[in-house]
Amino acid sequence: MDSRQLRYFIAVYEQRNLSRAADQANVAQSALSHHIANLEAEFATPLFERKPRGMEPTAAGERLYEHARIILRAMAAAEREIKEGGSEIAGDISIGMANSGMKAIGVPLMRTVLTKYPNLKLSLTESLSGATLLHLLSSEVDLALVYNPPSEKDLVAEPVLEEQMFCVGTEKLIGKKAPIAFEEVTRLPLILLRYGLSARALLDDPVLLKRLEANAIMHLNSTSGMIGALTAGLGCTIATTHFVSEPLKARLLVAREVVEPKLTRTLYLCRLRNRPMTYVMEEMCRLIRALIADQVGRGAWEATLLI
């Protein structure tokens, strides 16, 4: 298996047709068919089902496609790194962000890349923290901003900031802006993120998180659904003021500081240990840290810097 075979395989996978794939790859259809057959012989399994109207990937073909994209992308990055020696920040970079991260630094990041790095192609993915982590672990993104990732030997996780968590809901439901004890919070109608990796984003302390989850009346996997439920008075949640800044300003919601104990969560900048750091990744890490520090320093992001 070599890079040329992988490129030909990707062409067939994406076009689902040998003739169109041959045109895309600028190679004879017979040669393309020969390379695909050699790949299948090497793996001892069919990669496509030959049908009258085209080529349909098998399960093995689906898996190879994901690996092939990662392999070719890494090879291109390696070639660029060696040839340019970091003299120019160029190529592709994919960054995943939890919703709060995108809300805080998404636009400044895009603006900086467009103005300062014209030869860099940026891909941004926004999702709940748990989904963002899965994107990183499956190599769909190169860097990720996530909350409280699990301890993984393949994961390099750098803490960047700590946020205080509040009890958020309508004033009618949770009362006015005075501090509220954690025990009292557990007796309120809580709406929380769904169980699993996404739920880890809520709190640093897993014991306290389990207590909250045990008393929740509903679990959601949607930020817009969460905001809608809160403003409709269906329940309350544990969140940062940054997450609900707009409804707080509009006085649709109130945020009460949770005490006894205080609740916090930590944001991490993560990458895979088995993927070597590139010049582009280093530069983007520096940029992300600088943008986070700027947002916190200006008071736009209420948090404590850990970098």
Could you characterize the architecture of this molecule?
One of its GO terms (biological process) is regulation of DNA-templated transcription initiation. Belongs to the LysR transcriptional regulatory family. Keywords: Activator, DNA-binding, Transcription, Transcription regulation. The chain has 307 residues and is of the alpha/beta class. The chain has 3 domains: 3-83, Orthogonal Bundle (Arc Repressor Mutant, subunit A), CATH 1.10.10.10; 86-156 and 269-294, D-Maltodextrin-Binding Protein, domain 2; 166-262, Periplasmic binding protein-like II (D-Maltodextrin-Binding Protein, domain 2), CATH 3.40.190. The chain is built from 13 helices and 14 strands. It has a 6-stranded mixed β-sheet with strand order 4-3-5-13-6-14, with helices on both faces. Strand 3 (91-98), helix 5 and strand 4 (120-127) form a beta-alpha-beta unit. Helix 1 crosses helix 4 and helix 5 (99-116) crosses helix 13. The chain is elongated. The two termini are 43 Å apart. The mean pLDDT is 90.
Task: For the structure shown, list the relevant keywords.
307 residues, alpha/beta, D-Maltodextrin-Binding Protein, domain 2, 3 domains, six-stranded mixed sheet, four-stranded mixed sheet, 13 helices, 47% helix, LysR_HTH_N, transcription regulation
